Amino acid sequence: MSKKKKKKDLFSRIASYYDKLIGDFDYHSLKEYLDLNQNDILLDIGGGTGRASKILEKEVNQCIILERSIEMLKQAKKSSKSLFLIQGLSNKIPLKNNSVNKIFLNDTIHHIREQKETIDDCYYVLGKQGKLIIRDYDRSYFWNFFLILFEKILMFKSKFLTPFELEEMVKNHPFEDINIKRPNKSTFIFEATK
């Protein structure tokens, strides 16, 4: 009797060359939006190979990657020995309430099926005056249609949002301040302060 081999998801299959495929993290264009400091404990949800975190960790006290794919985390471990890596799901964050003061989702929320539950967990894990920062592609921008179509072809089951749909989702929690910023036409940066 042979064991059936479990099929890896696409991110696990491309983990070893993901960074080359996607390119460098564009920190300099985002620096002003992230508002990081040396006291921050940053949770990078869906941080994958550490492409962003290996740069962001230099700006904060502690950088934690929460990632579903063990193969992506293996790549993150190669890129930096000081990142704290957790395999897990974004809607079941295995951290204590009020334990981080910045949460960053970089081009990630559209890959998460349980988006509302993820926002719920982010709220509880964030400390007082902590910030939830989400950078993603705006579904309503015409040229993003091709990205959305491409992800459908790859069978990612992505759910792209507009920043206003995300704002409605976040309104279930008493965030003190919500801001939507536009670094360019195709993406938005959503920021909510607890």
TrEMBL record:
GO biological process: methylation
Ranges for domain Methyltransferase type: 43-134
Keyword Flavoprotein: no
Keyword Methyltransferase belongs to the record: yes
Gene Ontology MF annotations: S-adenosylmethionine-dependent methyltransferase activity
Keywords: Methyltransferase, Transferase
Pfam families, sorted: Methyltransf_11
Coiled coil region boundaries: none
Alphabetical list of InterPro entries matching this protein: Methyltransf_11, SAM-dependent_MTases_sf
CDD domains (UniProt xref): AdoMet_MTases
PANTHER family: TRANS-ACONITATE 2-METHYLTRANSFERASE-RELATED
Name listed for the protein in its UniProt record: Class I SAM-dependent methyltransferase
